[in-house]
Design brief:
Elements lengths: L7 H15 L4 H8 L5 H16 L1 H9 L8 H16 L5 H12 L5 H14 L9 H7 L4 H11 L1 H11 L6 E4 L13 E4 L2 E4 L9 H4 L3 E3 L2 H10 L6 E5 L5 H9 L5 E6 L2 H13 L5 E5 L11 E6 L15 H4 L2 H20 L1 E11 L13 E5 L1 H4 L4 E7 L2
Helix pairs in contact: 1-2, 1-3, 1-5, 3-5, 4-5, 5-6, 5-7, 6-7, 8-9, 9-10, 12-13
């Protein structure tokens, strides 16, 4: 086998994994660049390979550590992880292809011999992973950092935690929100099922290359994220405040729910994100949105708002399926720092709410320390139960 025979999907996946190791790149952003030009089926396979390998990094390194000594150079480590992922966690993959192409991807480094030796031994003998009846064993078996497993174990209990860990290693759903503000567009060629204004995609599909995306006919948005907009329940003609609004999925959903009537003030601190938010609103035909570049902690409007949505920065631990490297980035210190920031933002959000108005707090995480608002109504989604992102949201009424 030569380098020329390595499949485009495996080559792209290896490049993504390598960039996460060598550059600290975000897997989803790296994939967007490396998968450019791939055919839909190759793109789907490359995403499964890359995201699955990055998600399972802890387990794969645990396995590799049983057969190797010292530090592997990034190219070799990425190839070994990719090969191990296919042998241990993917059905329907020919073992000789997984091994042979991983070896080629490790070249020209002499470490390709290590990749070959380890993968062939695992192919012959298999691997017995630790049982998941303790947090320590579950952390290795399901490839999550121990601190996170322990937090969920104490909060949700062992059984629900194991189910959540398994779900977080599955591919994320691809849900599209159909936009009623856009001119009618042909969406019948999108594979999947439609429920109201939501399409649950099945099979290979590149949302961003579909003409409906550029036309604003739809936008990718998980069902849990869509639930936030309906929970806010904005009415036509109202004044609505969206704090920490970028990238704009919820902002434009609010506009759609209002039928484009009324005013939405979307506050975003960062200049680049605010500019991107304006472009998103234009693409989604959300003409009743006014983007304001300001710090949400300092923004004030004496007229007040009927409804306020606070979607603050959070640890994102409900989105581990679609952000495969996030579990290896977030730390307990990050969670504590974010919770403190969320508390300040929540106090600021209350100051913009009219008496009797509705305040909604929403975070795409599964962390008890970040469930700050209990409110008069609240809900939580779990990937293991609801098949969508993990979210927490609560609503309260202004005094």
């Amino acid at each position: 086998m030569s380098a020329a025979t390595v499949s485009p999907a495996r080559r792209a996946a290896h490049a993504v994994v390598l960039r996460t190791i060598a550059e600290g790149a975000y897997a989803d952003r790296a994939f967007h660049g490396e998968a450019e030009g791939l055919a839909p089926r190759d793109r789907q396979l490359a995403k499964r390979l890359a995201f699955g390998t990055v998600q399972r990094r802890g387990t794969l390194d645990w396995v590799a550590g049983r057969y190797t000594h010292g530090t592997l150079e990034p190219r070799v480590r990425a190839a070994l992880q990719l090969g191990l992922y296919q042998l241990l966690f993917m059905d329907g993959v020919a073992p000789h292809a997984a091994v042979g192409e991983a070896v080629e991807l490790a070249k020209p480094s002499r470490g390709h011999r290590v990749v070959n030796a380890v993968l062939r031994r695992v192919q012959r003998e298999g691997v017995e992973l630790p049982a998941d009846d303790t947090p320590e064993g579950a952390a290795v078996r399901h490839a999550h950092p121990l601190w996170l497993v322990q937090m969920w174990w104490d909060w949700l209990g062992p059984g629900p935690t194991r189910a959540l860990l398994r779900a977080c290693n599955e591919p994320a759903e691809l849900a599209l929100r159909v936009n009623p503000l856009a001119p009618a567009a042909a969406l019948d060629d999108i594979p999947g099922t439609r429920e109201g204004d939501t399409i649950i995609v099945s099979g290979p599909f590149d949302a961003f290359s579909h003409p409906g995306y550029a036309a604003g006919a739809f936008t990718p948005q998980s069902r849990a994220a869509q639930r936030v907009g309906t929970f806010v329940d904005p009415q036509p003609g109202e004044r609505v405040l969206d704090l920490c609004a970028a990238p704009g999925g919820k902002t434009t959903h609010l506009a759609a729910l209002m039928g484009g009537a009324g005013e939405i003030v979307a506050v975003e601190r960062h200049a680049g994100r605010a500019a991107a938010l304006e472009r998103t609103c234009a693409r989604m035909h959300a003409g009743n949105v006014r983007v304001v570049r300001a710090d949400a902690l300092e923004f004030r409007d004496p007229s007040g708002f009927h409804r306020v949505l606070l979607d603050p920065p959070c640890s994102g631990l409900g989105t581990l399926q679609s952000h495969p490297d996030l579990r290896w980035r977030v730390t307990p210190a990050d969670v504590a720092e974010l919770a403190a920031q969320q508390r300040r933002l929540l106090a600021a959000a209350r100051e913009s709410l009219r008496p009797g108005g509705r305040l909604v707090y929403a975070v795409c995480t599964l962390s008890p320390d970040e469930e700050l608002l209990q409110g008069v109504e609240r809900w939580r989604t779990l990937p293991s139960v609801d098949g969508t992102d993990g979210f927490y949201s609560a609503a309260d009424v202004g005094g």
